[in-house]
Amino acid sequence: MGFATEFFGFPSGGAYVKQLKRAPLTWVERVFKVRTFQEQEDDRHEVGEMKRCLGAFDLICIGVGLMLGAGVFVTTGAVAANDAGPAVIISYLVAGFSACLSSLCYAEFSANMPLSGGAYSYISAVFGEFLAWITVANLILEYILANAAVIRGFSPYFAMLINKAPESLVTATANYTLDWFAFGWCLLLTVMLVLGTKESAMFNLVVTIVHIILVVFIIIAGLVKSKPSVNLQPFTPFGVRGIFNGAAIVFFSYIGFDAVATSAEEVKNPKRDLPLGILGALCVVTICYILMSLALVSMVPISALQEAGSFAAAFQYVGMDWARYIVALGAVLGIITGTLVGMFAVSRIIAAVARQHLLPPFLAKVHKRFGTPYISTALSGVATAVIALFTSFDELLNMVSISTLFAFWIVALALMWKRYYTPGSNGKNALMAGQLLLLVGAALTFTIVYWVMPDSYIGMIVAAAVFVLMAFTLFFTGRQGHRPSSYSVPLFPFVPALSVGLNTFLLGQLDRDAYIRFGIWTVAVTGVYMLYGSLASAQHDKKADRALPTNGSTLNDVPSLPYSAAAEEKGLVAHSKAMETAADATAAKP
Questions:
Q1: DSSP tag of 267
Q2: Which of 25-61 are b and which e, b meaning 16 or more Cβ less than 10 Å from the residue's Cβ?
Q3: What's the CA gap between 92 and 244, in Å, rounded?
Q4: How many whole angstroms separate alpha carbon 301 and alpha carbon 290?
Q5: pLDDT digits (tens, 9 = 90+) for 245-273
Q6: d(CA 67, CA 257)
Q7: Contact 96/371 with Cβ under 8 angstroms?
Q8: Quick one: which of 208, 206, 254 has its CA closest to 92?
């Protein structure tokens, strides 16, 4: 591969101009161009392989490290005071159930397609390149913004820990509040991630274990000071609607388990360890959230929570002012691990997209010594550091979450399409597509009625009935064209169907600004795809001599999808066996 091809994706400027001249034809050809598992595997081998060094316990710590951050220390009190009351405990349970549905879908995909692209790899293998690009481009932006938002929380909690005013740790200028602690931590964590995944995972493991010990202490101390007979009454002061409103807010505390899927190419035995890591991390975090919320609302009455909803204020209320240092330390550790894992995830996603030439391919290069995608890690880390230096936490927080929810929604939909789609059976596929559209339409109708006409229970009941009817129709009439060889979602299709419904509901909870940001960024990245990504990807496939759909074709016209039985037998099963053999060999070493 020449320098120009390696850096830009084209051997010369003339080759780019030639592709640009046939751009309209290329766009038509590639909108539904699916990338099979084998194609994505070939791309992985082309740029270098990452070191397989992670086990199930490492993955659980990665997931916990990202999810169990500082947000829970403040969000819980605010939701209890303004939305759910003591029933915030149920809100966390409902949100955890919703996250569990999405995690089960990710677990099936990750076990059967162990690739570092996460949602991008799954969507591109089912719905095609363009929709996968739109999803992943929004995810990349959201991860970078979220990482910057998380690390901006370091200075206030560190100031609490050392008895300083938060303003003393930042530099105020006429237009910006510069946070050099956030900037420095981003650069330090970036260097750590470049030097090796195992080393970063070990650091995350140690910090996460200490963090969990502090969380357990907070739970025990809170329960010791609890007065449930007084403070838990009334349990649902805002009614059932308050519980679900609270669930929609605290759900964002669960975002992060998808980062575990991006480590697939660095896992010793992905077929076994990825489902364990994803589901294990979610279970640990859910238990911690429920017990922490129980401790808080049992310790402090609602009237006190309305004045200051944080755990630090709650401990001060019950005469344990010293415990605020424990809270601050726990928050600081959660911020560090959350930023570390978030930066780890986004670098893997960028590398996966770049090796398929939707981004410049040099971003996918893997360091020969360290076994990490060092260029994508360095560039995304520096971008996070610069944003965190100049932008406040509140400004960043309003711009995140929509992309992750959209990815959860479309991955669940992709799982159902993948299971039911049968190449060549256009009539059956059209019927199944209609059923899925009705399923999504019913969920959307329920969400609109819930938010726009909150007293229209008949509308919600009808929409929910149509949703349930479509799910049962798929169960009884849908014929699965593919069954995974390893882990599979239980209670199919009800689990992914419920995931689609709940994520539709949660998407409806987001404000107008989130959708404006999503729309503007989507238009921008569509332009990037049309002028670069689709052309470079077509050039890459042409060099690899890969077949494309004919002009004007649709997804149903593609001769075969990656999930046909033949593809699974040749690719996925062989890969799983190879991973098991490698895992056994690793385990046999002294």
A1: B
A2: ebeebbbbbbbbbebbbebbeebeebbbbbbbebbbb
A3: 10
A4: 17
A5: 888 888 878 877 888 888 888 888 888 89
A6: 7
A7: no
A8: 254
